[in-house]
Design a protein that fits this description.
The protein is mainly beta and 108 residues long. It contains one helix and eight strands, in the order ββββββαββ.
Length: 108
């Protein structure tokens, strides 16, 4: 699968809902930030660099992406877009992110 520049496709990593001691972890309310973990499965070739002049963004070049396939990342759920397609992903849920939306990345 080839993504557009600056885009990242992530396979979410399921969090344990219980701690080792048996304490159940509840889902935070909607007004709280919720951070998710995932593994990068597809990355755009590059990202564009912009210069902001007043209200306009002017494209000035391109650079490498900050992550590569196989990297583990943390991102804010509110910034991600759900992606499910029966033909492309066999109905499995993935997230699409911008390169700037990443909070943390563990490089392989």
């Amino acid at each position: 699968m080839k993504l557009m520049p600056g885009k990242i496709m992530v396979n979410p990593i399921k969090e344990e809902e219980k701690t080792k001691g048996g304490i159940i972890i509840s889902t935070p309310p909607d007004r709280c930030r919720r951070y998710l973990k995932g593994e990068v499965i597809a990355v755009g070739e590059y990202k564009y660099l912009y210069y902001k002049e007043k209200e306009n963004r002017i494209k000035i070049g391109k650079t490498d992406m900050n992550v590569k396939i196989g990297d583990k990342i943390i991102f804010e759920e509110a910034r991600a877009r759900d992606f499910t397609d029966k033909e492309l992903t066999n109905g499995k849920k993935y997230y699409l992110l911008e390169d700037e939306d990443l909070i943390y990345a563990k490089f392989n």
